[in-house]
## 1
Amino acid sequence: DVKVTQSSRYLVKRTGEKVFLECVQDMDHENMFWYRQDPGLGLRLIYFSYDVKMKEKGDIPEGYSVSREKKERFSLILESASTNQTSMYLCASRRDRGLVKLFFGSGTQLSVL
Amino acid sequence: DQQVKQNSPSLSVQEGRISILNCDYTNSMFDYFLWYKKYPAEGPTFLISISSIKDKNEDGRFTVFLNKSAKHLSLHIVPSQPGDSAVYFCAALYNFNKFYFGSGTKLNVKP
């Protein structure tokens, strides 16, 4: 079965810090996604990547950047963390555009103080 | 502006009865619709999907219905079991590229 691993379950950071959230998948999937989940708002897409070194902005990319240097790893970067970035962050992957099923990691609960 | 809406934040159902979770969408160009289930401290897991050219898809106790004229999607769980208690997200896929998620409905199945 596909495994999507997010490096941290909980993170606490200070305002202004640079934050890295890491995601690794083990099934050679082409597409990877970063979402944030907030109460009442569901999952909102931050960035996604079709393939290595390729990235596309999602619906809420402001304040975030991403890196995909290797196929299995997709990193989300908060350049200067702010309190409104406190959220649950979910990484997902899928084999390619031909498949509709997403596989999610367990999430990282980030608190910015 | 949310393109996929789940207007019921919570639903409580007795074990053995039917659970009906609803979802509305605004974009008639969505290609696929999906349901995900999420337990606390876990990521969402895929449950069932339906193509925009179909109106029903069934998988065991789970059936998804699509009403394109009403832009409405529903998930039926029959019979409901306590282990079905979770948050359910509906999602829509646009251009086989972008997924849009609803805000979720928390289902509680009482024994």
## 2
Amino acid sequence: NTVMTQSPTSMFTSVGDRVTMSCKASQNVGINVGWYQQKTGQSPKRLIYWASNRDTGVPDRFTGSGSGTDFTLTISNMQAEDPAIYYCLQHNSYPLTFGSGTKLEIK
Amino acid sequence: EVQLVESGGGLVQPGASLKLSCVASGFTFSDYWMSWVRQTPGKTMEWIGDIKYDGSYTNYAPSLKNRFTISRDNAKSTLYLQMSNVRSEDTATYYCTPGVADYWGQGVMVTVSS
């Protein structure tokens, strides 16, 4: 199985900050990675597909990058509505696997 | 608007069987592979498996393939998850998703406890 390792596990940030979180795959997954946002009490929502493509309606402060084994989700200007758990998902090979999540909170 | 409505969850005893359903709308159901994903109370996400758009092929997480079966009825735009011999570790919220987790419904909770 491909293991997706996310870091950090949690982080505190301030409104207006630039936030970067990482997802590392245990083997090459190409660009077959998505990023998901799950706010408290809500279902997950996909933000990024194919590693760097923003879903419709996702603010452009969210940017995905990377390929192979190293992937990054960046929030360029943290907003009050962005606290959530962020997950990465690889769909390069079966079984599909998720990272354990990065919990993002406001200071 | 894509809608996914999962149902069939609840409190079940260990060893029992349970069948979840997911009614989809807002997209052409028969054009999409569909997946089941679950999230434990500790927020761990686990992919369960998927099924080809015509129902002819399925893939499963190795740890679950002997107990879980995915099926679909394209005429009813409905996806199913048959769970058998459930265990306490199957306690989770279960989601159905089209494609590669493109969209998510509200999920359905399953609690396995005596």
